[in-house]
Amino acid sequence: MSKKDEFKVFASKHPELVKYIKSGEMTWQSFYEIYDIYGESDNAWDSYLKKETVKNGSSSATPSFKAITDKLKNIDMDSIQHHINTAQKALGIVQELTSKGTAAAAGTIGASEAISPRPINKIFED
Question: Is 124 helix (H, G, I), strand (E, B) or coil?
Fold first, then answer.
């Protein structure tokens, strides 16, 4: 088995390496170079593999009830109400403009029937 295939097997055993790739901290090339120089069982991997196990051990996937209540306490309800009011005003203006636009368009259709067409020989308002 080639060194490249061995690295693929190593990477599949440690899916936590993908998070470093996605975050942009490392590249597969960098990980392969570390693997090529130091191999699997060197201390060079401790910083990448231990970080992930510490993260998984100290925090759960779902936030605790206390964490949720703490976040809710920090929300400024007046600010939220202000933003809701602003959004409602904006939607009202858009609704008003669109309803006037359809009424005006309906009015111009009726008015265009009453206007007589311009003579063909009249160009640029002669």
Answer: coil
